[in-house]
């Protein structure tokens, strides 16, 4: 069997062209994965800080509601003491009555002070919940970004193995949405796909 040198050269050139296409695709995949990994790392740092803020807000809310309950108990004890002192003061005269009236005034003052402090704690606890919700909103954005970029990286890995260029372009769909959600979290954009987040929650 004779070997045609021209055919061999054509085959080699075709193989080289295929190798160049494959190398170009692999290079595109590698650069895209590197960019996504870097972006995910930046988002992870921000997301970790948000999770810490959420934990702090939750702890503060629990503390403030506990203090609220303590202030509420003190207020109720002071009010019941006022009632008891008023009943005990009935029928008293002179110095005894004056002592009861002074004690009543002190406990009424204490009850008012506890009521005021209780309302302050309620306001703080409600603000803690608002802070938690705001942080959770951003945390959802980063979680969604992380999930979408993980899907994109998986598709890019399959692209590198199969050498299918269409898969690369398919991977760009979750890439674009993942980058968008990550930027929304980083820049404070009001983007929150409720249905998708509820589905993943």
Automatic annotation (TrEMBL):
Q: Where are the transmembrane segments?
A: 25-45, 144-161, 167-189
The record's section on InterPro entries has:
DUF4337 (IPR025570)
Q: Which Pfam families match?
A: DUF4337
Where do the coiled-coil regions begin and end?
104-131
What are the record keywords, sorted?
Coiled coil, Membrane, Transmembrane, Transmembrane helix
The protein, known as? DUF4337 domain-containing protein
Organism name: Undibacterium flavidum
